[in-house]
Automatic annotation (TrEMBL), chain A:
GO cellular component, one term: plasma membrane
Primary localization class, coarse: membrane
Membrane topology summary: Multi-pass membrane protein
Domain NADH:quinone oxidoreductase/Mrp antiporter transmembrane intervals: 124-409
Annotated protein name in UniProt: Na(+) H(+) antiporter subunit A
A Pfam entry, by short name: Proton_antipo_N
Transmembrane segments: 75-95, 107-124, 130-147, 159-183, 203-228, 240-256, 268-289, 296-314, 320-344, 365-387, 399-425, 446-468, 488-512, 563-580, 600-615, 622-640, 646-664, 684-701, 743-761
Taxonomy of the source species: Bacteria, Pseudomonadati, Bacteroidota, Cytophagia, Cytophagales
PANTHER family linked: NA(+)/H(+) ANTIPORTER SUBUNIT, NA(+)_H(+) ANTIPORTER SUBUNIT A
UniProtKB/TrEMBL annotation, chain B:
Name this polypeptide is given: Na(+) H(+) antiporter subunit B
InterPro entries cross-referenced by the UniProt entry: CPA3_antiporter_subunitB, MnhB
Spans through the membrane: 12-30, 36-56, 68-87, 107-132
Membrane-topology descriptor: Multi-pass membrane protein
Domain Na+/H+ antiporter MnhB subunit-related protein: start-end pairs: 5-126
GO CC list: plasma membrane
Pfam hit, one: MnhB
Organism the protein comes from: Indibacter alkaliphilus (strain CCUG 57479 / KCTC 22604 / LW1)
Cellular localisation: Cell membrane
Entry similarity comment: Belongs to the CPA3 antiporters (TC 2.A.63) subunit B family.
Keywords: Cell membrane, Membrane, Transmembrane, Transmembrane helix
Automatic annotation (TrEMBL), chain C:
Recorded GO CC terms: plasma membrane
Compartments (UniProt record): Cell membrane
Annotated membrane topology: Multi-pass membrane protein
Coiled-coil residue spans: none
Presence of the UniProt keyword Membrane in the record: yes
Name this polypeptide is given: Na(+) H(+) antiporter subunit C
UniProt source species: Indibacter alkaliphilus (strain CCUG 57479 / KCTC 22604 / LW1)
Family to which the UniProt record says this protein belongs: Belongs to the CPA3 antiporters (TC 2.A.63) subunit C family.
NCBIfam families listed in its UniProt record: PRK09094.1, PRK12659.1
Keywords, ordered alphabetically: Cell membrane, Membrane, Transmembrane, Transmembrane helix
One family name in Pfam for this protein: Oxidored_q2
Principal place of residence: membrane
Domain of life the protein comes from: Bacteria
Transmembrane segments: 6-21, 28-46, 75-95
Length: 767, 136, 117
């Protein structure tokens, strides 16, 4: 299983390798990756549907409880098959759709990476690996959305998608860690058992709040929905893949996955109902004001995601079942609609629904796919959409006191979506063929077979829903472990739900006849743009940027001494206040050792040379003073039992003086630039700092010292490391890795010096 | 600085100092000393020699460009650090040959680690000093 | 003695910072070196001063039999000294290079050289 997940990443990594000699082969080979995984998942089908989830575990960072645990249950299988199944079609479709593209090899790399991340996400049983894959989908989708990287608006929407989903991902990480902390495990399947514990924990509202933000940003729920229409800048196959089956469904998957762990409480249900409800109505209504086919699809996708969130919020058995079926239904018809949009765009060069019509004359199979998908989206009997709609209505209809409002809103949403589906799936193909599109011709089979195939599935499952019984049962059981046995059927008897269903169809058809997509409708929305979340978001971004600009301009002004001064003042004020406020220093004279005459002499020597270094005007003088300071230091080390340090200090001191002497005459003169006033100010500042350091040193010196670490090293120096010079043993054995890295630092310094001297960095010499 | 006394002294000082630096390196595990100090001593010995005889002369007796000592030293250190893998122990576990050898004393992975440090210190110090002297 | 050392540490820090605040690049380097010395001494002092008892185990015994100086700060300072040398030499060569190319040692002249070159 790990191979199935990783292979996508491997293939993505291999792209640069292949592209040098086998560029043209990539589009021919890569589609077999999702196909292969799809077939592999198919072989697991029978075992999983017998309610025996499959489990694979690989250690990753076991000490933190982070493992690559993969678990294939109904929900994971449903998503996995959608990801790889629709993936296969998209891979094939792209190989023709983007045939002319310069960077097609790169495109397949991104696509494989994205697919692998998505697959990892739905299969992960471990919260942390789930998060890693979650972020990988955000990152790889960034490349896919911004694929047309020479188009500024494409880059902008990619950045926005990454910004929103990345932000959500971070929030999600906080939520996941909190869950793991409260529930005592990072394994989702184990968390199901501690569900009650988490729900009664006081952090529960925080946990679900964080989780919701993660899921809502990914699944484009109001008010985070605005990145999704922008993401339509991507090539159509990408939109198909991201928005029908994968990326945006990740949020839904997350909510569904955590339903057995966190679901069933009032706050869970009502938040989801509210957010999902607002999103589905808002977006469905919005879709009617659009004229670009992909825009219509974008908003209807948001609306469909809203419906899913809403259903998960309702949370009854019917609702969960409806959500499960609707995931499949929506993926099938929405992918079809996206694919035919791509064909229309490819063949006619426009996506404006107002200027399209009559295309069925030139591309019959595509038109057929469009009709079928639109009908499934509308929920006409004999289509899968009908069955999912029935169960949806059934679930809201029996939901406590609020049944009427909830049912009314979902019916209204469905009416709008009916129209949106018809506009995309039917309108471009009926009516008169405009003159300018008369030359449009039948596309390659690689383009039209995928949508026709998917549309066919809509009908197949719609007519024989029994095929899905066992599958949906396991999907349902992943969300609600103790579920009833499901039987999907076309005919539910003559009841209110059927009446509502017919009402939806009637209203939808009337609205379709009455309302024509037009630019003027789009214009009517313009005044409200000011209040749209996307505007707010952009304004926040701009404010933030200008704030950061002025902040940086104030502190990073390019004068070294200003940096030093601001650090100094901050440090002195902070530490000084702490010292002033409740720290009293008393000296323990017993700890203080006596002063011997020789030591006193060294101290006097040192103080003199420090002052000499400060005031002397000659370079040689300073260097001599520095040498003496170093030697005095060395003597201190020698007096106080540090022979190793004394030796090292002595050698280094010698080397430093030699170094200075070598370059002395190429160094700038020891000049003074500042005025007297400035010197006094700096003197006062540095004196203040020196006093602070002294007081701190005194303070620390008076506090009892903890020497466990030193004692451990000293005790075990010979016993464990067979050395008697503890300092050396620490360096080469106990803390050997540190030493290794320190020698690397030394090497880097040497290479820096070497390259500074030997390479020609003088810009004037280049010409 | 090409005085005869200085030159004659340096001629004898170089081998002595080098020997001394090796001595410091080897005894480091038991008495004050070790790779860092040893390496610095050796570097100072070469620099002294170069002051007396000039850089060309020094390079001709060393033959090897000191730059190459840095990667070699790092490699020795790293190999010493990972050598316990060969016997299925974690990185940096000290491995020791049981009996002390003549002149050298106890031999173990830590000693090789220290030798690596020694070489890196010589290499980088000499690289710094030599490239400065060359560009004057 | 400790009090005198603390005084010297404070003095080294103050002198180092004062030199760092100068406009001359040469003084900046001096400040860096002084500060480095001060920090080494500070760490050394905080490990407590013990006279004449280096952290080296007696030839005869396998563990310490009497009080010894704290080896951890010593190990820290030892590498700090060596790395400090690397840093100093790099800084010296850097200002030498800057001085050669730009022919100024006034830090304020380096503030906006991007456009001039």
């Amino acid at each position: 299983m790990i191979f199935a997940v990783i292979s996508g990443f491997i293939l993505a990594a291999l792209v640069p390798l292949f592209s040098s000699f086998a560029r043209n082969l990539i589009p021919k080979i890569y589609p077999f990756l999702p196909l292969g995984i799809f077939i592999y998942l198919g072989t697991c089908f029978s075992q999983v549907t017998q309610n025996a989830p499959m489990h694979w575990s690989y250690n990753w960072v076991p000490s933190f409880g982070v493992n690559l645990d993969f678990r294939l249950d109904g929900l994971a299988l449903l998503f996995g098959m959608l990801i790889t199944g629709i993936g296969t079609l998209v891979f094939f479709y792209s190989s023709y759709y983007l045939k002319e593209d310069k960077y097609l090899d790169r495109f397949y790399g991104y696509l494989s990476m994205f697919m692998a991340a998505m697959l990892g996400l739905v299969l992960s049983d471990n919260l942390i690996s789930l998060f890693v894959f979650w972020e990988l989908t955000s990152i790889s989708s960034f490349f896919l959305i911004g694929y047309k990287n020479d188009d500024p608006s494409s880059r902008k929407s990619a950045l926005m998608a990454l910004g929103i989903t990345g932000f959500g991902g971070l929030v999600l990480l906080a939520g996941l860690i909190w869950i793991g902390f409260v529930g005592g495990s990072y394994s989702i399947i184990e968390l199901v058992n501690s569900s009650e514990l988490i729900k009664s924990h006081e952090a529960y509202p925080w946990i679900i709040g964080l989780l919701f933000i993660g899921a809502f940003t990914k699944s484009a729920q109001f008010p985070f929905h605005f990145w999704l229409p922008g993401a339509m800048k991507a090539p159509t196959p990408v939109s198909t893949y991201l928005h029908s089956a994968t990326m945006v469904k990740a949020g839904i998957y997350l909510l569904a996955r955590f339903t057995p762990v966190l679901g069933g409480t009032d706050s869970w249900n009502w938040t989801l109902i509210l957010v999902g409800g607002i999103t589905m109505l808002y977006a469905a209504a919005h879709s009617l004001f659009r004229t670009d086919l992909k825009s219509i699809l974008a908003y209807s996708t948001i609306s469909a995601l809203g419906i899913l969130v809403f259903l998960l919020g309702v949370g009854t058995e019917d609702a969960l079942l409806a959500a499960g079926i609707f995931i499949l239904t929506h993926a099938l018809y929405k992918a079809t609609l996206f694919l035919i949009t791509g064909i229309i765009d490819h063949e006619t060069g426009t996506r404006e629904v107002t200027s399209l019509g009559g295309l069925q004359k030139v591309m019959k199979p595509v038109a057929l796919a469009g009709y079928l998908a639109a009908l499934s989206s509308a929920g006409v009997p004999l289509f899968l959409g009908f069955i999912s709609k029935e169960i949806m209505y059934e679930s809201t209809f029996h939901f406590s006191n609020w049944a009427i409002i909830l049912t009314a809103s979902i019916v209204l949403t469905k009416v709008f979506l009916f129209v949106a589906g018809f506009w995309v799936g039917i309108k471009p193909f009926t009516g008169n063929l405009p003159q300018e599109h008369a030359k449009a011709k039948m596309p390659s089979p690689l383009l039209w077979i995928p949508p026709v195939f998917l549309a066919g599935l809509c009908v197949l499952f719609g007519v024989f829903p029994g095929i899905l019984d066992a599958f949906m049962q396991t999907v349902f059981n992943s969300m609600s472990p103790e579920g009833e046995v499901i039987h999907l059927a076309l005919w539910h008897g003559l009841n209110w739900v059927l009446v509502l269903s017919l009402l939806t169809l009637g209203l939808g058809f009337a609205l379709y006849k009455f309302l024509k997509p037009s630019q003027s409708l789009k214009g009517k929305l313009a005044p409200f743009d000011k209040f749209a979340p996307i505007e707010l978001m952009e304004r926040i971004g701009i404010t933030f940027q200008s704030f950061a600009g002025s902040w940086t301009g104030f502190f990073q002004n390019g004068y070294l001494r200003n940096y030093v001064i601001s650090i100094l003042i901050f440090l002195t004020v902070l530490a000084g206040y702490r010292l002033y406020d409740g720290v009293d220093i008393h000296l323990d004279w017993s700890q203080i050792s006596d002063i011997t005459p020789s030591e006193f002499l060294v101290v006097v020597l040192m103080v003199t040379s420090i002052f000499f270094a400060l005031i002397t005007k000659t370079r040689t003088g300073v260097i001599v003073a520095l040498g003496i300071i170093g030697l005095a230091n060395c003597l201190f080390f020698l007096y106080y039992s540090a022979p190793d340090l004394a030796m090292t200090q002595f050698s280094i001191d010698t080397l430093t003086v030699l170094l200075f002497m070598l370059v002395l005459f190429q160094l700038p003169k020891n000049r003074s630039f500042s005025t007297r006033k400035l010197r006094v100010r700096d003197g006062a500042l540095s004196l203040m700092f020196g006093v602070l350091i002294s007081i701190l040193a005194l303070e620390v010196f008076e506090a009892p010292s903890y020497t466990e670490v030193s004692e451990y090293y000293a005790e075990n120096a010979y016993l464990l490391a067979k050395g008697k010079n503890v300092v050396n043993v620490i360096l080469v054995d106990f803390r050997g890795i540190d030493t290794l890295v320190e020698t690397v630092v030394l090497v880097i310094a040497a290479m820096g010096v070497f390259s500074l001297l030997k390479l020609n960095l003088n810009p004037f010499n280049k010409e | 600085m090409k005085s005869i006394i200085f030159q004659t002294a340096s001629k004898y000082l170089l081998p002595l100092l080098l020997l001394f630096s090796v001595f410091i390196l080897l005894r480091g595990h038991y008495l004050p000393g070790g790779g860092f100090v040893g390496g610095l001593m050796a570097a100072i010995a070469f620099i002294l020699y170069s002051f007396a005889f000039g850089l060309k002369e020094t390079k001709s007796i060393v033959k090897l460009n000191p730059r190459y000592l840095m990667p070699v030293g790092l490699a020795v250190s790293i190999l010493a650090a990972v050598s316990p893998w060969l016997v299925n122990l974690p990185v940096m576990t000290g491995l020791w040959y049981d009996e002390p050898l003549k002149l050298i004393g106890m031999v173990g992975s830590s000693l090789f680690f220290d030798i690596g440090v020694y070489l890196v210190v010589i290499g980088s110090t000499l690289t710094i000093m030599f490239s400065i002297s060359e560009t004057i | 003695m400790e009090l005198l050392l603390i005084f010297i540490i404070g003095l080294l820090h103050a002198a180092g910072i004062y030199m760092l605040l100068r406009r001359s690049m040469f003084k900046m380097i001096i400040g860096l070196i002084l500060l480095g010395n001060g920090v080494n001494l500070l760490i050394f002092l905080l490990g407590r001063l013990v006279k004449g008892k280096p952290p080296v185990i007696d030839e005869a015994s396998k563990v310490f039999t009497e009080i010894y100086a704290d080896p951890v700060p010593q190990a820290l300072i030892l590498t700090a000294i060596v790395i400090g040398f690397g840093l100093q030499s790099f800084a010296i060569i850097l200002i030498k290079r800057v001085y050669k190319v730009l022919e100024t040692d006034d830090l304020d002249d380096l503030n906006s050289t991007d456009e001039e070159i």
